[in-house]
Amino acid sequence: MEIPIFTPVRQYMNLKEEIDSAIQKVLSKGNFILGDEVKEFEDKVAQYLGVKHAIGVASGTDALQIALMAIGLKPGEEVITTPFTFVATAETIVLLGGKPVYVDIDEKTYNINPDLIEEKITEKTKAIIPVHLYGQPAEMDKILDIAKRYNLYVIEDSAQALGSEYKGKKVCTFGDIACISFFPTKNLGAFGDAGMIVTDDDELAEKIRMIRVHGSKVRYNHEILGLNSRLDTLQASVLLVKLKYLDSWNAKRIEIAKKYNDAFKDLDDVVIPYSEAYNKHIYHQYTIRTKRRDELAKFLREKGIQTAVHYPIPLHLQKAFSHLGYKQGDFPISEQYSNEVLSLPMFPELKDEEIDYVVESVKEFFKR
Fold this sequence. Notes:
Elements: H1 9-14, H2 16-29, H3 36-49, E1 53-57, H4 60-70, E2 78-81, H5 88-95, E3 99-102, E4 125-129, H6 140-150, E5 153-157, E6 165-166, E7 169-170, E8 177-181, E9 195-199, H7 202-211, E10 216-218, E11 221-222, H8 233-243, H9 246-264, E12 279-280, E13 286-289, H10 293-302, H11 332-338, E14 341-344, H12 352-367
Parallel strand pairs: 2-3, 2-4, 4-5, 5-8
Antiparallel strand pairs: 1-9, 6-7, 6-12, 8-9, 10-11, 13-14
Helix pairs in contact: 2-8, 3-8, 4-5, 4-7, 9-12
Family: Belongs to the DegT/DnrJ/EryC1 family.
Pfam families: DegT_DnrJ_EryC1
Protein name: dTDP-4-amino-4,6-dideoxygalactose transaminase
């Protein structure tokens, strides 16, 4: 049996008629940049989250960069974030001349440890970027309290977490700005790169809309420097079809995660994902930890089960950031977990027999 960690094909086949029709409609109209479907999708996401502004951009990475540009990040200013995340979170800070100041992660949730943030704040600190890793909300109450006391911006990196909830309220609605990715593997995935920025701040929203179109409100009249970063109409049309299924897909992910948890909770060498009781964790990834990670991955690969490591090298040890001066040992929990995490197949279309096969195979490995 061959089981991918994720495949978009099954989802497409289930929705083929709807998606093909939506794409054909765009093709027949020919408005591929900021067409009607983009505005409609933006409005529906804003309604889904209960926010004033949802602004489509070209990718989740662009969403982060534009958010930092919108708050006016200047060279030399600092942004506090986690080293245990995808590279884009820190990459965008550095590209704008800022410095990512890392805070190690919480041992249970793998998100930024809010109790370690305050000691990293300096007169150069501009913002905090919490990442809702794997679909698990970060500890927003503590983060917002610190940000308020020190007058810092909060930019939620919600790339992996659309639909998750913290204490009954959807993520993307806590910070000054939130950034979303619609990369094809995400819980709500496009057929290419796509992203979104959400905010309740009218001034920030106006600036974000300008930045995504070369810093202009009126064509050929450029008030500020910007980017070419629009959500294209074809992707918006696909996402419009998919959005109405997001909650049911997330519910299915939670159901699959429960099956995995129940099966693995008594295995001595496995740490299953932890979720705070007040959080709705939507399992963009189902990620276990084991000191025998590489052996297990090899064993599962030989069984036809695809796995992945999210993430094998924490950001402070990435060569691209070597000029920042971080070293081995600076963030011990992130470093330890990067050697232990393993993501198992997780997508709503997983069949019961596939889930059972993954479970049986993992158990077989640990019986050896």
